[in-house]
Amino acid sequence: SSEAEVEEQTEQGQRTGFSELSESLLVQIASLYEGILAEPHEAIASNQELLAYLPERLDSIHALVRLFETVGQWSELVVTLEQFINHSEIDETKQLEAYKQLGGVLFTHLERYEEAIEVFATILQADENNAEVITHLENLVQFEDYRGGAARLLCPYYEQMGQVEHQIYTLQVLAEQQSTDSEEELQEKVAYLHQIAKLYLNASAFQE
Q: What's the burial of 68, exposed, middle or buried (CB within 10 Å: 0-12/13-18/19+)?
């Protein structure tokens, strides 16, 4: 961090009665609890105390990600991963890794599937063939409540991979999801059905 940021943190610490020495001691305490003493809950408390005084302290956020995963506090892990992802000092590579971890936690441990689908969409923008995400989406497309969101993400993947039967299936799902109550959705339904018809025609022409 720059000298200005260091000065600002020092001033912030002085205003709250939190010195660099206090920070250093709390860091040592957190490190001892996490390492030699193997007391993750105490380490969590120490890192949370650090963040109460220095909310942007990246090492503490990173430590909490590690510790919440260790103790299986999944909801807290989600909140901390989101904090990590939105941190100003995180580069795109680390951000993508954190998104992958977040998607996995939402899907596997919390079964918060709608939120997971949103995260998967973000991951696929940067890593369009991510195998783990595709597997999760292929599970979700089988469930009524999530099949529309999953199919929307799987369809371009299947198109790119030349998996015509799978692509047709996702287009059928998307067509079924459109309501007949609005003109806009009717137009979308027609567009999906046209795509399906075109794929069938291409497939039969190829077979001939």
A: buried
Question: Tokens 């003493």, residue?
Answer: 37
Q: What gap in Å lies between CA 159 and CA 122, rounded to an integer?
A: 19
pLDDT tens figures, 73-111: 999 999 999 999 999 999 999 999 999 999 999 999 999
Is pLDDT of 8 > 80? no
**Residue 176 pLDDT more than 60?**
yes
User: Can you say how many angstroms the Cα of residue 137 is from the centroid of all Cα atoms in its chain?
Assistant: 13
Radius of gyration of the chain (CA): 24
The CA-CA-CA angle for residues 191, 194, 197, to 5°, reads 155
Cα angle: 18, vertex 24, 28; to 5 degrees: 130
User: Which tens digits make up the pLDDT trace of 135-148?
Assistant: 999 999 999 999 99
In a 13 Å sphere around the CA of 42, the CA atoms on its Cβ side amount to 13
pTM higher than the cut 0.85: no
